[in-house]
Design a protein that fits this description.
Keywords: Transferase
GO molecular function, one term: transferase activity
Structural class: alpha+beta
CATH architecture: 2-Layer Sandwich
Distance between the termini: 15 Å
Strand order of the largest sheet: 1-2-4-3
Shape: globular
Number of domains: 1
Protein name: TusA-related sulfurtransferase
CATH class: Alpha Beta
Order of helices and strands: EHEHEE
Family: Belongs to the sulfur carrier protein TusA family.
Number of helices: 2
InterPro entries: TusA-like, TusA-like_sf
Helix content: 25-40%
Oligomer: single chain
CATH superfamily: TusA-like domain
Length: about 70
């Protein structure tokens, strides 16, 4: 599993970082992006599900900190 720390970064920076990292991954591999901006959840999920049809999910791991998992299709 690959990991990106996007704490303190606002969109579109998390999307740009995830785009770059996902290019390196093989189909079926997962990327976890950690963010502390709730608006990034909707932006990231909408982007990768809509543009690439990648599976996305997210969980709040601590109060105000979320991990978004993106599976490359």
């Amino acid at each position: 599993m690959h990991f990106i720390d996007a704490l303190g970064e606002m969109c579109p920076i998390p999307i740009i970082k995830a785009e770059k990292e996902l290019k390196k991954l093989n189909k079926g591999e997962k990327l976890v992006l950690e963010t502390d901006h709730s608006c990034s959840i909707q932006s990231v999920v909408k982007h990768f599900e809509g543009k690439y049809n990648y599976k996305c999910s997210y969980i709040e791991v601590e109060e105000g900190i979320w991990q978004i998992t993106i599976e490359k299709a």
